[in-house]
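Protein modeling request. Please complete all fields; requests missing the sequence field cannot be processed.
Requester role: graduate student
Desired output: 3D structure, token encoding
Chains: 1
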Amino acid sequence: MSGRRIRRVNEILREVIAEECRNLKDPRLGFLTVTGVSTSPDLRNAAVYYTVLGDEETEAGTARALASSASRVRAAMGGQVRLKYLPKLTFLPDPAVAHARRIEEILRGMGEKDGRA
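Delivered output (117 residues):
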């Protein structure tokens, strides 16, 4: 499958999954943003990357809520997206956000070390 088609499928899936996640009524869900989707070349599996606004407890609750509702989101997605295989969804926190937080901590530490707090 061509790289361009995979990117297009990923973007369509991201839009549909984000919309379906907005419709979830689980109280454990925090303020959620679906940042990206990465499907396997055979379209059987999809990693859904997300960020959530809040503390670690909110992030953990959101992760549990998404894991328990993955099959519901997948079923709803099946009505909107026509693919030969509907990918199995795995929700993962976006590693770019954790990386950015770590860089920010390092920069703050450098500022404090220089006396620029």
